[in-house]
Amino acid sequence: MNLSNLKPAEGSVNREGKRLGRGQGSGKGGTAARGHKGAKSRSGYSKKIGFEGGQMPLQRRVPKFGFTNINRKDYKGINLGKLQELVDNKVIESTVSFETLVENGIVGKNDLVKILGGGELKTALKVSVHKFTASAKAAIEAAGGEAISL
Question: Where do the record's region annotations for Disordered lie (predicted)?
Answer without folding.
Answer: 1-52
